[in-house]
Write a structure and sequence with these properties.
- With about 280 residues, this protein is an alpha/beta fold.
- It folds into 2 domains: about 35-60 and about 80-205, Rossmann fold; about 225-280, no CATH class.
- It has 8 helices and 13 strands.
- Strands 6-7-8-3-9-10 form a 6-stranded mixed β-sheet, with helices on both faces. Strands 2-1-4-5 form a 4-stranded antiparallel β-sheet, covered by helices on one side.
- β9 (about 205-210) and β10 form a beta hairpin.
- α3 packs antiparallel against α4 (about 140-150) and α4 runs parallel beside α5.
- The protein is globular.
- The structure holds adenosine-5'-triphosphate.
- Adenosine-5'-triphosphate binds near residues 25, 48 and 50.
- It holds the Pfam family ABC_tran.
- InterPro entries: AAA+_ATPase, ABC_transporter-like_ATP-bd, ABC_transporter-like_CS, ABC_Transporter_VariousFunc, P-loop_NTPase.
- This is ABC-2 type transport system ATP-binding protein.
- Keywords: ATP-binding, Nucleotide-binding, Transport.
- GO terms for molecular function: ATP binding; ATP hydrolysis activity.
């Protein structure tokens, strides 16, 4: 893996656009993700998350705009950039293969492959080399798929709903293993998930798409620090529900208490603004 130049964004999109005939899946999407960040890609169904990942991975061509990976424009190469790994929603595992055979396939299919590293990740996951993929649990399959994605030693790792299908225990186990690894390696990660509560504490950067447009973009701490939600003692317990209670926008009386929102509240406020969602106000720094 090349040593990232800290001045160059790991991943940058400039006015990225994607139309599928009548559907405008992504509009004028511009962001710059610094190296070493673990970014959450949040947004409701159909917001354009998979489309964005597919475009970055070179699976689809944009209708407009540009993508840069470590400063190199996607216009200068075809297919997936050698420093990017993509773990799509449907995990690319062959059910009839053993764990060992999957690793061999990874070696064959990738010009750049760190066999030693991939084997170590599989060992850490407690996977038996002779076990068939079809006999693995959902959590074990996720760990194998992640080892396959990391075996390329990517500088940028794209994960589309990596924790879907997993029960809460497996989600925690897989996400901890994944995060330890990418932090140790300094890998930049872009990870989509519907379960925004899962992303808090895992991700230090947030991109939120709604109807193909980027509505939130920045370091999580900065975004949370720049917004306030009204403190409602009776309502606080409902923060985990999909549609949070409305919090009045104004006027705020002098006694009104404000607190920093959770990541979930902030994202929900953009996905479902009042009168159906939480009102979260921006504060000037
Ligand atoms: N191959 C395609 N042909 C036509 N429309 C498409 C195609 N793929 C996606 N779309 C449309 O583009 C929009 C964005 O879809 P996309 O799958 O990128 O969203 P998403 O945020 O990943 O959704 P989900 O969270 O449900 O996976 C949707 O309206 C979808 O119906």
């Amino acid at each position: 893996m090349p040593v990232p130049d800290s001045d160059v964004a790991a991943l940058e999109t400039i006015a990225l656009d994607k139309r599928y005939r009548r559907v405008h899946a992504l509009s004028e999407c511009s962001f710059s993700l610094p190296s070493g960040r673990i970014a959450a890609l949040a947004g409701p169904n159909g917001a354009g998350k998979s489309t964005l990942m597919d475009l970055i991975a070179g699976i689809r061509r944009p209708t407009g705009g540009e993508i840069r990976v470590l400063g190199t424009s996607s216009r200068s190469f075809s297919g997936i950039h050698p420093d990017v790994s993509y773990l799509a929603q449907r995990k690319p595992l062959y059910r009839s293969f053993t764990v060992e055979e999957m690793l061999k396939a990874g070696h064959k299919l990738n010009d750049r492959w760190d066999a030693e590293y991939a084997r170590r990740l599989v060992e850490q996951a407690g996977l038996t080399p002779k076990a068939k993929v079809s006999t693995l649990s959902g959590g074990q399959r996720s760990r194998l798929a992640i080892a396959m994605a990391l075996g390329r030693r990517p500088a940028v790792l794209l994960l589309d709903e990596p924790l879907a299908e997993l029960d809460p225990f497996a989600r925690r186990e897989v996400s901890h293993a994944l995060l330890d690894e990418v932090r140790n390696q300094g890998t930049t990660v872009l990870m989509s998930s519907h379960i925004v509560a899962d992303l808090q504490g895992m991700c230090d950067y947030l991109l939120c798409l709604v109807s193909g447009r980027l509505v939130l973009d920045g370091p999580v701490e900065e975004l949370l620090g720049a917004h306030r939600v009204r403190r409602e003692p009776d309502l606080d317990g409902a923060a985990g529900s999909t549609v949070s209670p409305v919090v009045e926008a104004a006027p705020a009386s002098p006694e009104t208490e404000w607190r920093a929102p959770t990541l979930e509240e902030l994202v929900l406020s953009r996905m479902a603004p009042p009168p159906h969602g939480t009102y979260v106000r921006a504060v000037s720094s």
